[in-house]
C-alpha cells in the first residue's frame, strides 16, 4: 500500500512519540522521589545553619561585651598603666572586681584573666598567681611568640593551677588592650564548651539526623551523642551537610539517622533516569534518520538555500511548513529578514563595543596592544598627532532629588541632552572628545590633545560653557572634575582618578562649578584634618547635659570645615565620628533619653547619604540635632525634679572652685539625702557627681592655662584644689599630660 507524504510522516513519528512520552512519565514520577530527598537535605541544611548561627551569636555577644568593657572601663588602664607600690594592690583588687562582674553577667564564661607584658603579671577574677606557677602559662607564651588570634581559638584544655589535672575543655578569646595600652597586655576570656552545648542541646536531639560540631581545626566539640571534646570522634564520611561559620570557623556536620530512608528510591531513580536518557537519545536518532530519509526529494533545494545564505554571511534556520514550495518561499524571506536584522544588530554592537573599550581605558585593562588601541581611536575620529590625554568627569548635582522629580524615561532623556551639549560645545571649539556615561550620575569624557593645541585653557572653557548651559536651560546643575594630562594611553586611569578625586571637594568648594585637582592640591593641607575632634567632644558633652552652648560649637566647627577644601569622604568620616560620640554619650543617660537617640539615628544616616555641600550638611544636620535636643528637653522638663536639677547645676557651676564642695554639701544645700541626689545626678547627666565636678574643674583649668600666665599653684587654687600635687595628678589622669606640658603644647 502506498502512502502519501502526510501519512508517511505520521506513521514515522507516532511510535517515537508514544514511546518517548511514556518513558518521560515514568521518569517524572520516579524523579519526585529524588526531589523529596533534595528538599529534605535543604531542610537539614537550614537546621544546621540555625545551630551554627545560635552559637555564633552567643560568642559574638561575649566578644562585644568584652570590647565594650575594655573601651569604657578605666579600671583596665589602672592595671596596665604605670603604678607604684602603694596603689598596686588596690588597682588589682578593683580590676579583679570588674573581671568577676563580667563572669557573673556572662554565664558562658568559664574564666578570664589579664596579662601585663612589662612584668609578666597575671590577674584573674580571684587572685594574681605567679607567672611560673600559672596553669595557662604555655598558652600565654604562645600568644607572645605567635601573636593574638583574630577570633576564638580552637578547642583547648584550661587549668588555672599548674598542678591540676587535665583541665577543662574551653575555647578562648584573646583581645589586645586598646591604645594607648595596645601592646602592654591582653585580656583572655575562656568560654565553657559544655555551656555552649547546653544552649543548642535541644536542637541536637533530633530523631531524623545526626549532628556533630567541630572547631576550625577539625577537633570534635560536641554532638547529638552528648559527648564533649572527644578526640576519637571524626567527621562522618557520609555527612550530607557541612556548614562552616564565617565568624568562628566552626563546622556543623549532619547526616540522616536512617541511611536507608532514600536509598532504594535513589537507586531506582538513577536506573530509570539512565533508561529514560537512553530512550530519549534513541528516539532522537530515530527521528533524525526517518526525517533525513523522507526529506530526500527536497534536500537539494534546502542545500541550495543554505549555500546562498552562507555566501551572504547570513545563517538560515527553521522552515515554513511541510510544503516544499512554501519552504523555498519562506527561506528567501528568512534570508532577507536576517540581513536586515543583522545590519541593525551590527549598529548596536558598535555602540556597546565603544562603551566597553572606553570602560577598559578608564580602568586600565588594556588587554590589547597600544597599536590596536590607537587604531580604535582613529576609528572613533581621533588624529594621529595626539600628544596628551585628559579625562573630565561630569557629576549630576543633588542626584537624589533628580531621581525623585524625574521618571526613568525623563532621566535618560536629560542625560542624553547633557552628553549631546558637551559634544556640541566641543565641536564649536574644534575639539575631539569621546563621551560615555559610566554610571547613573557620572559622565566621563576623554580629550585627545594634539601637539599644536592648548590643553588647559580649551578644556576649562568647554567645561565652563557646559556648566552654564545646563544651569540656564535645565532644572538641575552639574559639577565637572578635571584630571591631570597624561602622555600615554596606559596613564589615562591616573587622569580619571584625579578627576574623580577633584569631585570629592565639591562638598566644601560648592557645586555647579569646575574643579581642577591641580589647582585644588595647592590649597589643601590635611595635616590638621582632625584638629576639630576636641571641639566635637565638647559638643557631645554639652549636648548630653542639655547645655545650649553646643549650637555655638557646632556652628564654629562647620565654619572651620567650610573654610578649607576637604574631600567628601573625610568630611563624612568626621561627621560619623561626631554622631558616634553623641550616641556613646547617650548610653549613659536614662532609658527615656536613650530611646530618643535610637529613634533619631536613621535621620542622621539619611543626612550623610543625601547632602552635596557643607551648607546643606550644616542645615540638615542642625535640624536633626536641634529636634533631638528639643525632645530630650521636653522629657526632662516633664519630670518633677527638672527644676531641682537646674538649680543643682547652677549651684555647682558657681561654687566649683570651692575645695569643700561635695555631695554632702550639695545635699545640705538642697535638704535632700545624698544617696537620692547621687542617683538623680547619674540619671540626668549620665555620670557621677564627682566625675562631673572634676571635668568642670579640668576644663576651667585648661582655659586658665591657655589664656592667662598664672602659675600652676594659682590655677589649682582657682579651680578648687588646695594642694597642687593633687591637681597635677588629676589633670594628668584626664588630659594625659601635666599642666606645665599642656601649657607648653598650647604655646607651641
TrEMBL record:
Keywords per UniProt: DNA-binding, Membrane, Transcription, Transcription regulation, Transmembrane, Transmembrane helix
Annotated coiled-coil segments of the chain: none
Gene3D superfamilies named among the record's database cross-references: Homeodomain-like
InterPro entries, per the entry: CdaR_GGDEF, Homeodomain-like_sf, HTH_AraC, HTH_AraC-typ_CS, Tscrpt_reg_AraC-type_HTH
One GO molecular-function entry: sequence-specific DNA binding
Pfam families, alphabetized: GGDEF_2, HTH_18
Record-annotated HTH araC/xylS-type domain positions: 646-745
Residue stretches spanning the membrane: 12-32, 261-289
Annotated SMART domains: HTH_ARAC
Record protein name field: AraC family transcriptional regulator
Amino acid at each position: 500500500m502506498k502512502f502519501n507524504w502526510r501519512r508517511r510522516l505520521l506513521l514515522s513519528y507516532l511510535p517515537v512519540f508514544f514511546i518517548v512520552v511514556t518513558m518521560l512519565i515514568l521518569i517524572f514520577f520516579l524523579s519526585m522521589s529524588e526531589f523529596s530527598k533534595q528538599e529534605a537535605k535543604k531542610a537539614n541544611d537550614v537546621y544546621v545553619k540555625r545551630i551554627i548561627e545560635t552559637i555564633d551569636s552567643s560568642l559574638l555577644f561575649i566578644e562585644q561585651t568584652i570590647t565594650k568593657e575594655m573601651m569604657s572601663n578605666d579600671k583596665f588602664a589602672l592595671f596596665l598603666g604605670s603604678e607604684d607600690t602603694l596603689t598596686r594592690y588596690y588597682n588589682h583588687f578593683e580590676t579583679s572586681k570588674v573581671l568577676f562582674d563580667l563572669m557573673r553577667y556572662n554565664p558562658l564564661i568559664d574564666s578570664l584573666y589579664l596579662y601585663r607584658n612589662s612584668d609578666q603579671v597575671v590577674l584573674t577574677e580571684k587572685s594574681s598567681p605567679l607567672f611560673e606557677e600559672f596553669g595557662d602559662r604555655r598558652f600565654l607564651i604562645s600568644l607572645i611568640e605567635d601573636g593574638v588570634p583574630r577570633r576564638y581559638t580552637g578547642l583547648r584544655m584550661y587549668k588555672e593551677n599548674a598542678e591540676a589535672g587535665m583541665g577543662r575543655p574551653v575555647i578562648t578569646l584573646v583581645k589586645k588592650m586598646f591604645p594607648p595600652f595596645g601592646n602592654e597586655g591582653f585580656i583572655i576570656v575562656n568560654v565553657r564548651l559544655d555551656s555552649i552545648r547546653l544552649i543548642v542541646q535541644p536542637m541536637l536531639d533530633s530523631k531524623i539526623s545526626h549532628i556533630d560540631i567541630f572547631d576550625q581545626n577539625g577537633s570534635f566539640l560536641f554532638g547529638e551523642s552528648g559527648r564533649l571534646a572527644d578526640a576519637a570522634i571524626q567527621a562522618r564520611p557520609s555527612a550530607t551537610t557541612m556548614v562552616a561559620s564565617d565568624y568562628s570557623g566552626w563546622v556543623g556536620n549532619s547526616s540522616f539517622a536512617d541511611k536507608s530512608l532514600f536509598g532504594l528510591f535513589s537507586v531506582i531513580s538513577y536506573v530509570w533516569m539512565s533508561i529514560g536518557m537512553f530512550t530519549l537519545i534513541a528516539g532522537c536518532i530515530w527521528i533524525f534518520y526517518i526525517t533525513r530519509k523522507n526529506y530526500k526529494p527536497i534536500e537539494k533545494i534546502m542545500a541550495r538555500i543554505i549555500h546562498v545564505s552562507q555566501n551572504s554571511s547570513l545563517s538560515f534556520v527553521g522552515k515554513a511548513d511541510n510544503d516544499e514550495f512554501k519552504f523555498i518561499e519562506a527561506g528567501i524571506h528568512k534570508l532577507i529578514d536576517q540581513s536586515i536584522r543583522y545590519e541593525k544588530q551590527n549598529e548596536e554592537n558598535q555602540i556597546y563595543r565603544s562603551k566597553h573599550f572606553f570602560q577598559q581605558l578608564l580602568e586600565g585593562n588594556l588587554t590589547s596592544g597600544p597599536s590596536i588601541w590607537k587604531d580604535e581611536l582613529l576609528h572613533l575620529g581621533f588624529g594621529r598627532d595626539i600628544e596628551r590625554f585628559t579625562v573630565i568627569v561630569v557629576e549630576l548635582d543633588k542626584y537624589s532629588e533628580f531621581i525623585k522629580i524625574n521618571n526613568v524615561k525623563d532621566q535618560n532623556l536629560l542625560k542624553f541632552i547633557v552628553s549631546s551639549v558637551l559634544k556640541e560645545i566641543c565641536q564649536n571649539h574644534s575639539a575631539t572628545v569621546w563621551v560615555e556615561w559610566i554610571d547613573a550620575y557620572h559622565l566621563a569624557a576623554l580629550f585627545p590633545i594634539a601637539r599644536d593645541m592648548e590643553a588647559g585653557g580649551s578644556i576649562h572653557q568647554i567645561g565652563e560653557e557646559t556648566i552654564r548651559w545646563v544651569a540656564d536651560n535645565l532644572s538641575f546643575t552639574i559639577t565637572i572634575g578635571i584630571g591631570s594630562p597624561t602622555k600615554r594611553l596606559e596613564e589615562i586611569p591616573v587622569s580619571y582618578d584625579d578627576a574623580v578625586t577633584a569631585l570629592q571637594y565639591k562638598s566644601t568648594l560648592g557645586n555647579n562649578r569646575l574643579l581642577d585637582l591641580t589647582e585644588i592640591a595647592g590649597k589643601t593641607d590635611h595635616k590638621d584634618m582632625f584638629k576639630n575632634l576636641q571641639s566635637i567632644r565638647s559638643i557631645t558633652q554639652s549636648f548630653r547635659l542639655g547645655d545650649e552652648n553646643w549650637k555655638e560649637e557646632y556652628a564654629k566647627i562647620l565654619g572651620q570645615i567650610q573654610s578649607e577644601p576637604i574631600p567628601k569622604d573625610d568630611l563624612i568620616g568626621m561627621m560619623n565620628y561626631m554622631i558616634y560620640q553623641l550616641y556613646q554619650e547617650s548610653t549613659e543617660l536614662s532609658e527615656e533619653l536613650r530611646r530618643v537617640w535610637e529613634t533619631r539615628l536613621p535621620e542622621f544616616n539619611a543626612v550623610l547619604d543625601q547632602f552635596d555641600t557643607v551648607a546643606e550638611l550644616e542645615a540638615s544636620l542642625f535640624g536633626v540635632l536641634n529636634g533631638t535636643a528639643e525632645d530630650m528637653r521636653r522629657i526632662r522638663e516633664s519630670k518633677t525634679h527638672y527644676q531641682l536639677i537646674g538649680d543643682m547645676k547652677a549651684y555647682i557651676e558657681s561654687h566649683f572652685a570651692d575645695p569643700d564642695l561635695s555631695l554632702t554639701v550639695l545635699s545640705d544645700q538642697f535638704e535632700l539625702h545624698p544617696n537620692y541626689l547621687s542617683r538623680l545626678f547619674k540619671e540626668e547627666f549620665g555620670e557621677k557627681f564627682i566625675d562631673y565636678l572634676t571635668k568642670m574643674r579640668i576644663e576651667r583649668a585648661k582655659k586658665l592655662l591657655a589664656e592667662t600666665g598664672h602659675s600652676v599653684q594659682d590655677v589649682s587654687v582657682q579651680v578648687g584644689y588646695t594642694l597642687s600635687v593633687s591637681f597635677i595628678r588629676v589633670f594628668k589622669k584626664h588630659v594625659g599630660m601635666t599642666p606645665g606640658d599642656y601649657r607648653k603644647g598650647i604655646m607651641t
